[in-house]
Amino acid sequence: MNAIISKIVQLSKNLGYFVLQYAYVCLYWLLRLAKVQLQQWSRFTGKRAVQKAYSGLGAEVYSAYNLGRDSDWAKLPAVQQQLKRVEEVESDVFQVDAVVEQINDEFAAKKAELQARFAAKRQTKATGFGGEAGDQSTSADDPMR
C-alpha cells in the first residue's frame, strides 16, 4: 500500500512540474508575442516611411525629367539626398526583422532552458522519493515504514 501511495505522490509531483513548466512556457510565449507585435507595428510605420521616401524620390526624378535633365538625373544633389533617405529607411525596416529574429531565438533558448530545468527537477524528485530508480529514503525520512 505504501508503494502505491508513494507512486501516486511521485506521479502527482511530476505532473505538477509538467504543468508548471508549460505555464512558464506559455508566459514566455505571451511575452514574445507582445514583443513581436510591438516590432510589427514598428515595421508597419517603417514601411509607410519607405513608401514616403520612394514617393519623394519619384517626385525628384520626375521634376528633373520635366526640367529636361533626363540624362544625368542620378547625379543631382536632391536625387542623391532622396536615395540616401530611402536607404536609411529601408535599413530601419531590415533592423526590425533582425530584432524579431532575435526575440524568437531568445524565446527558443528560454524554452529549452525551462524544459531542461524541469526535466532535471522531475528526475531528481523521481529518484529521491523511493521510486523504481532506487529506494534512497530511510526510515527516518518515511514514517510509514
Can you describe this structure?
With 145 residues, the chain is mostly helical. It has one domain (2-128). It has helices spanning 2-66, 77-128. The radius of gyration is 31 Å and the shape is rod-shaped. Mean pLDDT is 83; it is low at 129-145.
Mean pLDDT across all residues, rounded? 83
User: What integer value in Å does the Rg equal?
Assistant: 31 Å
Strand content: under 5%
Helix content: over 70%
Task: State the separation between the terminal residues, measured CA to CA.
Answer: 11 Å
In the predicted model, the low-confidence regions spanning at least 5 consecutive residues are 129-145
| Class from helix and strand fractions | mainly alpha
The general outline is rod-shaped
Number of domains: 1
Number of helices: 2
Q: Characterize the largest beta sheet: strand count, sense, and whether it forms a barrel.
A: none
β-strand number:
0
The helix/strand series, from N terminus to C terminus, equals: HH
